[in-house]
Write a structure and sequence with these properties.
single chain, alpha/beta, 12 helices, binds thiamine diphosphate, binds magnesium ion
Length: 321
């Protein structure tokens, strides 16, 4: 499907925002400005943005420990995220959650998750709520190749089929669970085929190609919305950085690391759109400049912000109804 110019520009802006966000957070994590572990999403941008383009305010996503890209693609404020990741007052979760625990219910983002495989059951719950309340919404549950081995994922997939709920499990297969290649940690099985065996339609797509991801998302999410049934998309993506910042990736060859950078989703997007004459090259430069300024300002504001007051340490633990 041909996307209009504004949608193309906005999609690129979101991918470029994720890239710039991750590069900045990565650098500041290495220099000790950010508390806790940080897992970068750089290289995987077309997955989050291509998928979330098919979602609206009525829809939900569940995320992972590598969740910054999912948040940005679903519409979270980068300023609020930056404050949260640096552990500052005013962050999306009061500066008390950090990178792995960003939740933003205001945009339908159920939360990043430090528990690998923890997001899939939440996604099924949100889809069940959408079905029960007849909101017309769907839920996308992002998970990794490693998480696809978890018992929680198997249970969530079973429940989704049994309960007939509109959840789309998006397996972002970046080839590794921490430092272990998928060929070893999953015993070489086809992840989409394994997911399909639960009784769902499963589709594979090249996650470096925004247009391919979006086309599959349009079909699969559209069908889930229409039929109320679950489905799976396996997106082949490249993790540019280590499992967490500071991981030297000694288990990947220099050739492999160089090769994945030749499949940069932002470059592939730009090249295709410029060649098709849909957006002129200088508009991309303008977007890149605006994104760089915004990220720089957000990081500076976060570094300058106060840490949460000690009196808030026990608040937000329980929800009051
Ligand atoms: C239940 C649980 N087991 C183990 C871990 C440690 N752990 C953190 S990330 C990770 C690998 C996850 O791999 P994958 O799902 O492929 O996501 P990716 O990091 O590649 O995005 C593991 C094992 C954890 N956080 N939670
Ligand atoms: Mg992985």
């Amino acid at each position: 499907m041909q996307l209009d110019r504004d949608t193309l520009a906005e999609s690129y802006r979101r991918m470029a925002t994720i890239r710039a966000f991750e590069e900045r957070v990565g650098a500041d994590s290495l220099s000790g400005l950010i508390p806790g572990f940080v897992h970068l999403y750089a290289g995987e941008e077309a997955s989050a943005v291509g998928i979330c383009l098919e979602l609206g305010a009525n829809d939900w996503i569940g995320s992972t420990h590598r969740g910054h890209g999912h948040c940005i693609a679903k519409g979270s404020s980068v300023e609020g995220m930056m404050l949260e990741i640096y552990g500052r007052e005013g962050g999306l979760c009061g500066g008390k959650g950090g990178s792995m625990h960003i939740a933003d219910l205001s945009v339908g983002m159920l939360g990043a998750n430090g528990i690998v495989g923890g997001g899939a059951p939440l996604a099924v719950g949100a889809a069940l709520a959408a079905k029960t309340l007849k909101t017309g919404g769907v839920c996308v549950g992002f998970l990794g190749d490693g998480a696809s081995n978890q018992g929680t994922t198997a249970e969530a997939m079973t429940m989704a089929v049994v309960l007939k709920v509109p959840v789309v499990f998006v397996i972002e297969n970046n080839g590794y669970g921490e430092f272990t290649a998928v060929s070893y940690h999953s015993g070489g099985v086809d992840l989409a085929a394994r997911a399909a065996s639960f009784g769902m339609q499963a589709t594979k797509v090249d996650g470096s190609d925004f247009f391919a991801v979006h086309e599959v998302a349009r079909e699969v999410i559209g069908k889930a919305r229409e039929t109320g049934m679950p489905a799976v998309i396996e997106v082949a993506v490249n993790r540019w950085h280590g499992h967490f910042t500071g991981d030297p990736q000694a288990y990947r060859s220099a050739e492999e690391l160089a090769l994945v950078r030749t499949r940069d989703p932002l470059v592939l997007f730009k090249t295709r759109v410029i060649e098709a004459g849909l957006i002129p090259a200088d508009l991309f430069d303008k977007i890149d400049g605006e994104v760089a300024e915004r990220i720089e300002a957000a990081a500076r504001a976060a570094i300058a912000a106060p840490v949460p007051h000690v009196s808030t340490v026990t608040t937000d633990v329980y929800v009051s109804y």
